[in-house]
Amino acid sequence: MKTGFWLAGATALALAGPAMAGDSIKIGFVSTFSGPTAVIGNDMRNSFELALDHMGRKMAGKPVEVIYEDDQQKPDIGKQKTEKLVQSDKVDFIAGYIWSNVLLASLKTAVDSGTFLISANAGPSQLAGDLCSPYVFSTSWQNDQTPAAMGLYMNQKGVKSVFLIGPNYAAGKDMLAGVKSTFKGEIKGEEYTVWPSQLDFSAELSKAKASGAESIFVFYPGAAGVQFLNQYAQAGIKAQIPLYTAFTIDELSLPLQKDNAIGVPGAQEWVNDLPGEQNKRFVDDYRKKYPGLRPTYYGAQAYDAAQLIDSAVVAAGGDTSKKDVMKAAMEKADFKSLRGPFKYGNNHIPVQNFYLQDVVKDADGALSLKTVATIVKDAQDSFHDKCPMK
Amino acid sequence: MTASFNARNAVAALVVAGLVLLPLYSSLSGNIFILTLFTRIVIFALAAISLNLIMGYGGMMSFGHAAYLGIGGYAVGILAFEGIGSGFIQFPVALASSALFALVIGALSLRTRGVYFIMITLAFAQMAYYVASGLARYGGDDGLTIYKRSDFGGLINLSGKVQFYYLCLFCLLGGIYLVWRIVNSRFGLVVQGLRSNEARMQAIGFPATRYRLVCFVIAGMMCGLSGALNANNTDFISPAVMYWTRSGDLMVMVILGGMGSLFGPVIGAIVYLLLEEFLSQLTEYWALVMGPLLLLIVLFGRGGIMGMLGRSGRD
Amino acid sequence: MLLVVEQFLNGLQFGLLLFLLAAGLTLVFGIMDLVNLAHGSLYMMGAYFAATFVAWTGNFLLGIVLALGASLLLGIVLELVALRHLYGRDHLDHVLATFGLILFFNDAVRLIWGPAGLALPLPAWLTVPVQIVPGVFYPAYRLAIIVVALAVALGLYLVVMKTRVGMLIRAGASNREMIGALGINIKLLYTLVFGLGAALAGLAGLMQAPILTVQIGMGENILILAFVIIVIGGIGSIRGAFLAAIFVGMIDTLGRAFLPDLLRKILSSAAASTAAPALSSMLIYLLMAIVLVIRPEGLFPASKR
Fold it and tell me: What is chain A's mean pLDDT, rounded?
């Protein structure tokens, strides 16, 4: 049948994955590898590869084969790639997924086929709530969690009022809702900007200034975060109205934000200087293996995804048909997460700490992120009640 | 269009035969994914032939055709979300809402010509895109997952891969037949005549705008059908299917395959989507190859792939 | 009130920037009858050139001048190699070919500069906020954009209205066959006009770069806006492009700033905050649709044949 397959011509060639027969663990990895957000996908892939290196590229003694697929940041492409991985490559696990909408579009394919899906970033509220599934695990967070931690920190600082700015898509709304769920002061105003096309925030900054709010909170992932910080600095209000962020400053944006980011706090579940041997090894080896680059939380989550998969495969003794055994193993979260304490709630979303990070100049003069404090311990998302799994 | 045996007809016949036999090959080889991929291709081919009807034959260069993909898709998605799962309701609603949208924007847009027409259709499609992004109840920007495909009772099961593929193929072939009938009807000849010499046609006494509008609405409905099928195929609908780049993709398929040739858009859809799949497997820098390829096709291959295969009787 | 002044300036600055992009597009469109989707890529290249040259020379102004030269050169090369073969072709051929160029440029940039994007930091003297009226501070750099763009608009006006080249350009925009009949070296004129358009796009890109960032695909969304402007203004008309650009810039900025509050007065707060962004991003398309329905050839059609 294989020969017939290859004889079938050029079209088939296009579709043929590296479908080598053999006893290996097959993992599909869906992320964004083209377009402006490819930096994120690259970081996730780098970290996933590094995790495999650290495991000797074997899980339970079997060689690991990873098939990376580019979702082009489009839900329908992501769904198609997921289908290819499930149907054509017949992978045992699918990991990755940066974007909530790509994940939501792909979810049904993976779950219906009984393939384990590990979200290494996207955390839409549905995933934690009514769409939770025995086959789906997250190594990141639910969208609301990180900004909720920021809201707590602002309470701790005694901030009286805030002006919220975020992009007008589901994650953006989740983020602002997250702050509102914990922040006790007054919300002076709330602005949603057009995503992803609006890159000029002058109107919103002017309004924030005019509102008389004591602080500003923003959520702008990727390049938009760079733009926001540039404009915030140029508007000359950095000295007057302090800025609080979630997912706006990371190692990918920092080289572009430069000094504009200094002194702007953010909440995060992983920071590069968190204690623990495992984390130190990850950060050091990453910087050695990929000179000039620094790992981000996206990468750390992808690294944890590899570890989670490994823990399942090891528990099943390399027999990936034992889905129940693997599921039970993953629920135990029996691996050393880079972020330290890590366990799963009933909905397979991590119960974890959130840290306050700040931007500082490190020894060699480069800007880097630094853990300042632990804002909240063992935080669980607020949607786990809606998940029917017990 | 005479049915003489030339290279174009031979290719068209081969492609149809290939499409019809594809599920057989898929089950023999055990490669399910090729069926999934081609279901998508067939659906987009339907959208492309509908665009070709107005663009290639009618001279109406719509840069907002993807709007119907979204409208058809949202008709299915929203009804499914509200608990109305019957395809006998969903599909007619999809067609009717596409027709209504086409009627309104067509009536307004057809006042303009040329590039202005391109831009005004784009404007309307973008408005539809932003409306969908604002539908908070239906997922807004993140889109809406469709948990149950359209239910056609015992008639056909859309969740069956092969059945669904044949349904899409049936729609595509039906669409091609419809375009063929339209193009060769008196109505179609008038629309084509308007493209080449509007003043003369109007002088003879044909109400130009009304003819164009009818053609525009038919194309909109065909693309709306494609949208309803697409939503079923992906089990998902989001505003992204309406974004202007998607309209651009459709245009590229039509031009690539050969505008104004009956079968060109089908070839265009197959080649474009396969190239995208094939090149993206080969290298992450697939656009670096695809871009100049498109340029070369324009520079050296007038009339798209079908044009390269030889002239049809009409030219 | 102060907020209104500030938003007004924001709108003006955005509109002027859009004008720089639209001016080149409308010239190329009006004179060579070429639909150039890759105009946004030239905008992106201008920004990448500037970020590279500024980092390389360590001098902001010198880097910008070099980047402008590079944009001009790139435009000329692009015209000579690819686009001149497209003159006289169908508009759809232009769309397909220049769409291909967008794909090419995006990936070429990714290959050369990497996917991460670049930063173009401002020199210190441009980062201080300036007090324009008592109580209103405005970023110096945004003021600089307003000044530069106005100067360029004025210069362009003088060139187009008062010089021989300008006369040819105007003649070309309103009647293409005529300048050929006059025995002018059209090929050279076309190359020059395209180069000028590229330089203007590059200028828009590099001026926007410190505010936004330099990244792949940065030209695509703004390109659509530029097309909206030239269509509203009337293809080939610099004056139309100028007025439409200011108009679009204002509508977009003021709409975003004040529409949500306006809606909140009518609708419930929750409904308003979901509807407002969708509505305000729709405004310019709505504007274009209305203009075209009323005046199918834009506000200031250049060709009155």
Answer: 89
Beta-carbon separation of B240 and A74 below 8 A: yes
CA-nearest residue to C35 within chain B is: B115
Q: Do A230 and C257 touch (CB under 8 A)?
A: no
Show the 3-state SS of C169-212.
Answer: HHHHHHCHHHHHHCCCCHHHHHHHHHHHHHHHHHHHHHHHCCCC
* Set of chain C residues whose Cβ sits within 8 Å of the Cβ of A230: 210-213
Please report residues of C whose CB lies closer than 8 A to that of B101.
Answer: none
Q: Where are the domains of chain B?
A: 37-242
Chain A residues with CB-CB distance to C139 below 8 A: 231, 234-236
Using a CB–CB cutoff of 8 Å, tell me whether B32 touches chain A. Answer: yes
Per-residue pLDDT reduced to its tens digit, C256-280 = 888 888 888 887 766 776 677 778 7
B274 touches chain A (CB under 8 A): yes
Query: Which of B32, B280, B284 lies nearest to residue A87, judging by beta carbons?
Result: B32
Give the mutation candidate from A201, A226, A230 for the C interface (greatest C CB count, under 10 A).
A230
Low-confidence ranges of chain A (pLDDT < 50): 1-21
* Domain locations along chain A: 2-141+275-351, 145-268
Whether A4 contacts chain B with CB within 8 A: yes
B181 to chain C, any CB pair closer than 8 A? The answer is no
Distance between CA C37 and CA C44 in Å, rounded?
12
Model pLDDT, residue A166:
92
CB contact under 8 A, A105 and B274: no
Check if the beta carbon of residue B215 is closer than 8 Å to that of residue B239.
no
Say if A2-141+275-351 and A145-268 have the same CATH topology: yes
Q: Between the CA atoms of A141, A142, A143 and A145, what dihedral angle is there, to the nearest 10 degrees?
A: -80
Q: What is the pLDDT of residues C145-158, one digit of tens each?
A: 999 999 999 999 89
Instruction: Determine the Cα–Cα distance for residues A37 and B56; give it in Å rounded to an integer.
Output: 36
CB B158 within 8 A of CB B232: yes
CB contacts of B25 in chain A (<8 Å) are 8
Tell me how close the Cα of B230 comes to any Cα of chain C, in angstroms: 24
Task: With CB atoms and an 8 Å threshold, state whether C91 touches B130.
Answer: no
Tens-digit pLDDT profile for residues B21-79: 999 999 998 888 899 899 999 999 999 999 999 999 998 999 999 999 999 999 999 99
- Preceding omega of A341 cis (within 30 degrees of 0): no
Closest residue in B to C299 (Cα) is: B116
C-alpha span between A97 and A117 (Å, rounded): 10
pLDDT in tens, B258-305: 888 999 999 999 999 998 888 877 777 878 888 888 888 888 877 788
Report the pLDDT averaged over residues C214-224: 86
Amino acid code (one letter) for A387: C
The predicted pLDDT at position B300 comes to: 81
Segment B159-182, tens digit of pLDDT:
889 999 999 999 999 999 999 999
How many CA within 13 A on the CB side of residue A247?
30
Position B276 scores a pLDDT of 83
C100/B295 CB distance under 8 A: yes
* Of the options 3.40.50.970, 1.20.1250.20, 3.40.50.1000, 3.40.50.2300, the CATH number for the domain spanning A145-268: 3.40.50.2300
CA distances from C24 to C33, C90, C198, C246 (A): 13, 20, 7, 16
A2-141+275-351 fold: Rossmann fold (3.40.50)
pLDDT at B2 over 70: no
